[in-house]
Amino acid sequence: MQLPKSRRRQKLREKRCLYPGCGKIFFGIHISKYCPEHRQDRYRIRKRTKPEDVNIKNQTFKHSYTEVVTMVMNCALEGCNHQFEIKIYPRQYIYPKYCPEHRNEYRRIRHLQTIDREDLIEQMKRESENFELEHVPGKNEVEHTDKEAIGDVA
Ligand SMILES: [Zn+2]
Ligand SMILES: [Zn+2]
To answer: Which ligand ends up closest to the CA of 137?
Structure first.
């Protein structure tokens, strides 16, 4: 295929790869953001919701009820044996997993402190960071872009 003569080749210029932690100089057209290596699909940076995101305070309860039923659940908090009732609705699969008292994060932390499970507190705090980057670079190198995924890799 031959390009029409009038169409000028886009000028390559020195660019610095924007991939977190890379910074390599490469030659690219003005919209290029990443060096050839980081242009590959597997390096594509996208923010995704952690799979367990929805399960931090809730649980996914797969069921096939076609009418509302009431169920008794056990509080998911380590060391708590409270039970609580929830109403299960058709085609709704996300339900609270803690007893009413422990739906409050502060209360959960207090409870874990009393049973001496600092490790679970740490874990809980990590899980409540909603987003993570794929191919996580060093924390300070993360670009603070908006919530949109960076989808326009040249
Ligand atoms: Zn790069
Ligand atoms: Zn509880």
So the answer is: 1
The pLDDT tens digits for 94-110 are 999 999 999 998 999 99
C-alpha 94 – ligand 2 centre gap (Å): 18
125 and 77: one domain? yes
Give the mean model confidence (pLDDT) for residues 11-21: 90
57 and 38 in one domain? Answer: no
Euclidean distance between CA atoms 18 and 60, whole angstroms: 38
Residues 100 and 121 in one domain: yes
Q: Which tens digit of pLDDT belongs to each residue from 21-42?
A: 999 999 988 888 899 999 888 8
Report CA(90)–ligand 2 centroid distance (Å): 25
* Proximal ligand: closest to the CA of 78: 2
Return the beta strands (E) in the chain as ranges: 13-16, 25-28, 47-49, 58-60, 69-74, 83-88, 94-96, 131-133
For residue 99, give its domain range: 53-129
